[in-house]
Design goal:
heterotrimer; A alpha/beta (about 150); B alpha/beta (about 400); C alpha/beta (about 160); B: about 400 residues; Rossmann fold; Heat Shock Protein 90; 3 domains; 5-stranded parallel beta sheet; 10 helices; elongated; C: 6 helices
C-alpha cells in the first residue's frame, strides 16, 4: 500500500492550479502536489533535470491542453512514448469540449478526459472525483523501471 | 456697327462630328466608298479599314473597331461568319450587314443570329442612323453589365462582412469564457470561504458579483451556441430524429422528474442536417415546454407530419401559453416575456432554433393562446441541404 | 436491447460478480443500458461488430468496458490487447476489474494500455462500492471519446 501519492499538475494558469489545490484540500487528499506551468517544464520535471533533480516520479498527471512552449498533446505523446513514463495515468483536465481534442487525447493514450467545469461546485466535484478514483480503488502501476 | 455677328448658315460640314472607327468587310471598292460617304454625310468622322477575307478580318480585330460593316455575300465567306468570329473573340462590337437584295427571310435569320441590323446598298442613307442606334444599344449593354458587376461585388462584400461578424461573435464569446470562468469560480470561492467572516455588506456584495458572473456565463454560452449555427464545423448527415429525441429526453431527465412531466413522441422521420443542431432544436423546445408549465403537471408531445414537400414537426404542451401578439417577437435574440425572477433563462433558445431551422430551409412558428398551452411547429424540407454551404 | 445503444459493456463470467455489478451500476442510475458478455470471444464479437453482433456499428461504442481478466475462451488480457491494438476500437475506455493479485497481471494490463486497473475486493459491500465509484467516474466525470451526443454533453459532474 502506497504511503504518499504524488500528483503532478501541468497547467499554465496559476488560478486553476490554486483551484485544484483548494479542491484537493476539501477532498482530504493527503499526498503531495507539484505544478509546472508549461510543456517544457513538464518534460524537465519528468526527466528530473535541473531544479527537478529530486522530484518524485508522479503517480498521476493532471494535464491541461493549452500550454505555452509545448502543448499538452505533445507532452502526452512524449509521456506515452517514453518507457519510464508510459504507464503513469494521465488525466486530461481542460476547458476544451471540442470533439477533436477529446478524440486526439485518447488516440495519444490519455487514460481519461475531464472537462474543467465553469463553476466552483462542479469544479471541486470533478477534482474530488479524480482524486477519489485514482488514489482510491485503482491499483496504480509500480514506480519501478519498465519491466 | 451691329451688335451681333451674322451667324453662318448651319451646314452639315459645321456639325459636331462623331468620331467613328469602322471596319468594313467588303470586296467591292466602289461599294466601300459609297458606304463611307454615307457615313460622312451622316455626321461621322470615319477612320476606316477595309478587309476582304477572314484572315485579314481576324488580324484587323487586334485593334478592335467600334463597328463592323459587312457585306453579306463575299466570295469565300459570308458576313454572318464574321459575326461568329466576333463572338469567338468575345468582342461585343455591333455588326451591320450591308447588302444588295436580301430576302426578308434571310434578313430575319441574320438578325436572329445576332446581326445588329441590315441596310440595303441602295438605301445607304439609313446607315448613319442604324449605326447610331447600334452604338446606343451597345452602350446600354455595357452599363447593364457594369451594374451587374457592381451588384455582384456588393453582394460578395456583404457576405464577407456577415461572415466577419459571425466570426467575431464566435471568437469573442469563445475567448470571453476563460476569464469569465476565473471570475465566476473565484467569486464563488470567496462567497464560500468568507461567508460571515467579513463585514455585514461583504456577503451581499460578493453574492451580487457571483450572480452577475453566472448570468454572464450563461449568456456567453448561448451567444456562442447562436454564432456557431452557421459555421462550417457543422457536418450534415442523415439524422434519426427518434434517436435524437431519446437522447434529449435522457438529458432532460432531471427536469422531467422534478416537474413530474410526461414527454412523449410519435414516430419521427430521418432528416438531413447536423445532429447536434437538431438536438439543440428539440432540446430547446422541449425544455421550454417543461419550464413554462402551468399548475398542472406538464405534458409534452412531439409529433411529425409529412406532405410531399416537407416535414412539419410539432412540440405541443399544456403550459402557460403565449399571447398571439407576442408570437413573433419570442424568436428574436434575447427577447424575454417574463422577469428573470419568474422564469430563468435569457431568451436566446428560440432564436437559436429559428436560426438552425432556417439554415436548413425551414420555418418555425407558434400557435398559442395565453393560458392555453402552446404548440411550436417547424418545417424541414424533405430534400434538405443547408441554404448556404459557403 | 439495441446493441448500438450500450453505455457499459460488462465482461465477466462470474454470475455473482455480474449481479453485484449490475446492482451497483443501476442503483446510481448510471446506466440503463448495460450489456453483459460472459467470455472473451463474445466481448470481442460485440466490440468488433462480428458474429452475432455484426449489425453493431463502430461509431457507437460503449462508454465503458468493465473487463475481468480470467475469462473463458479468450482471456481478458488478450481482449484488452485486441481492443487497444486496433485503430477502430483503441479509444474505448477499458477498466480492468479483476480478482487477480498478481503484480505481473497489473503491469501487463498497463503495458497494454488499459485505462485503469482495479482489484476486486473480497467483501461484497466493498465490491459494490467500488463498482459504483468506477461507474460514476467513467460514465459521469469522464468524457468518452465519442463526445457528440446530447447525453454525453449534458452529463454533468456528480452533484
Amino acid at each position: 500500500m502506497k504511503s504518499t501519492f504524488h500528483l503532478l499538475i501541468v497547467d499554465d494558469n496559476p488560478a486553476d492550479v490554486s483551484l485544484v489545490e483548494e479542491a484537493l484540500k476539501v477532498s482530504a487528499y493527503a499526498g503531495s502536489c507539484q505544478s509546472v506551468g508549461d510543456g517544457v517544464e513538464a518534460m524537465a520535471y519528468l526527466s528530473r533535470r535541473g531544479s527537478f533533480a529530486q522530484a518524485p516520479k508522479p503517480d498521476l498527471v493532471l494535464l491541461d491542453l493549452n500550454l505555452p512552449k509545448r502543448d499538452g498533446l505533445t507532452v502526452l505523446a512524449a509521456m506515452k512514448a517514453g518507457p519510464e513514463w508510459r504507464r503513469i495515468p494521465v488525466v486530461i483536465f481542460s476547458t476544451s469540449r471540442l470533439g477533436r481534442d477529446v478524440a486526439r487525447s485518447y488516440e495519444l493514450g490519455a487514460n481519461c478526459y475531464v472537462s474543467k467545469p465553469g463553476n466552483l461546485s462542479e469544479y471541486f466535484a470533478a477534482v474530488k472525483a479524480i482524486e477519489q478514483f485514482w488514489f482510491g480503488p485503482v491499483t496504480l502501476p509500480p514506480q519501478g523501471e519498465e519491466q | 456697327m451691329s451688335s451681333f455677328a451674322v451667324q453662318p448658315a448651319l451646314d452639315q460640314s459645321a456639325q459636331v462630328k462623331t468620331r467613328l472607327s469602322a471596319l468594313l468587310v467588303e470586296d467591292n471598292q466602289l461599294d466601300a466608298e459609297l458606304e463611307l460617304r454615307a457615313l460622312r454625310q451622316g455626321g461621322f468622322e470615319v477612320k476606316a479599314r477595309i478587309v476582304q477575307d477572314e484572315a485579314a478580318f481576324r488580324k484587323a480585330l487586334k485593334e478592335p473597331p467600334e463597328i463592323v460593316l459587312a457585306d453579306y455575300n463575299l466570295p469565300s465567306w459570308t458576313g454572318v461568319e464574321a459575326l461568329h468570329i466576333l463572338r469567338q473573340e468575345g468582342l461585343d462590337i455591333p455588326l451591320i450587314l450591308v447588302s444588295g437584295a436580301l430576302g426578308d427571310v434571310t434578313a430575319v435569320e441574320c438578325i436572329k443570329r445576332g446581326v445588329t441590323d441590315y441596310v440595303l446598298k441602295d438605301g445607304l442613307a439609313r446607315l448613319p442612323q442604324a449605326i447610331r442606334r447600334a452604338l446606343e444599344e451597345q452602350h446600354e449593354r455595357q452599363l447593364l453589365r457594369q451594374a451587374e458587376q457592381g451588384l455582384a461585388r456588393k453582394a460578395a462584400e456583404l457576405a464577407r462582412s456577415n461572415a466577419d461578424l459571425e466570426q467575431f461573435a464566435y471568437v469573442a464569446s469563445h475567448d470571453l469564457q476563460e476569464p469569465l470562468r476565473m471570475v465566476a469560480t473565484y467569486t464563488q470561492l470567496l462567497a464560500e470561504r468568507y461567508r460571515g467572516r467579513l463585514d455585514e455588506n461583504a456577503d451581499k456584495f460578493i453574492a451580487y458579483a457571483c450572480e452577475g458572473a453566472e448570468r454572464m456565463q450563461v449568456l456567453i454560452r448561448d451567444l456562442l451556441a447562436f454564432s456557431r449555427v452557421g459555421r462550417k464545423e457543422n457536418e450534415s448527415a442523415s439524422v434519426d430524429c427518434n434517436a435524437v429525441m431519446r437522447e434529449v429526453v435522457q438529458g432532460l431527465a432531471v427536469a422531467i422528474q422534478q416537474s413530474k412531466a410526461t414527454v412523449t413522441f410519435g414516430s419521427l422521420p430521418e432528416v438531413w442536417g447536423d445532429r447536434t443542431q437538431m438536438a439543440q432544436v428539440f432540446q430547446n423546445l422541449v425544455g421550454n415546454a417543461l419550464k413554462f408549465h402551468s399548475a398542472q403537471a406538464p405534458t409534452v408531445s412531439v409529433q411529425a407530419e409529412e406532405n410531399e414537400k416537407e416535414w412539419t414537426f410539432s412540440v405541443a404542451d399544456n403550459g402557460i401559453g403565449i399571447a398571439p401578439e407576442h408570437a413573433e417577437q419570442i424568436f428574436t435574440v434575447f427577447h424575454r416575456l417574463h422577469a428573470r425572477t419568474e422564469y430563468p433563462g435569457n431568451g436566446i433558445g428560440l432564436a437559436i432554433c429559428k436560426k438552425i431551422v432556417e439554415r436548413y430551409g425551414g420555418r418555425i412558428w407558434v400557435e398559442s393562446e395565453a393560458g392555453a398551452g402552446a404548440t411550436f411547429r417547424f418545417t424541414l424540407p424533405r430534400e434538405s441541404r443547408p441554404a448556404a454551404e459557403a | 436491447m439495441q446493441t448500438n445503444d450500450v453505455d457499459i459493456l460488462l465482461v465477466d463470467d462470474s454470475p455473482e460478480d455480474i449481479d453485484l455489478s449490475m446492482h451497483a451500476l443501476r442503483s446510481e442510475n448510471l446506466a440503463n443500458r448495460i450489456f453483459v458478455a460472459r467470455d472473451g470471444e463474445e466481448a470481442l464479437d460485440f466490440l468488433f461488430c462480428t458474429g452475432a453482433y455484426s449489425d453493431r456499428s463502430f461509431d457507437l461504442p460503449p462508454k465503458l468496458v468493465l473487463l475481468d481478466l480470467k475469462l473463458p475462451k479468450i482471456d481478458g488480457l488478450q481482449v484488452l490487447q485486441r481492443i487497444k491494438g486496433d485503430e477502430r476500437t483503441r479509444n474505448i475506455c477499458v477498466v480492468m476489474l479483476t480478482s487477480s493479485r498478481e503484480e505481473r497481471d497489473m503491469i501487463r494490463g498497463y503495458n497494454a494500455g488499459v485505462n485503469s486497473y482495479l482489484q476486486k475486493p473480497v467483501d461484497f459491500n466493498e465490491f459494490r462500492a467500488m463498482v459504483k465509484l468506477v461507474g460514476l467516474y467513467w460514465v459521469v466525470t469522464n468524457r468518452p471519446p465519442v463526445a457528440n451526443s446530447v447525453a454525453a454533453r449534458n452529463a454533468a459532474v456528480p452533484k
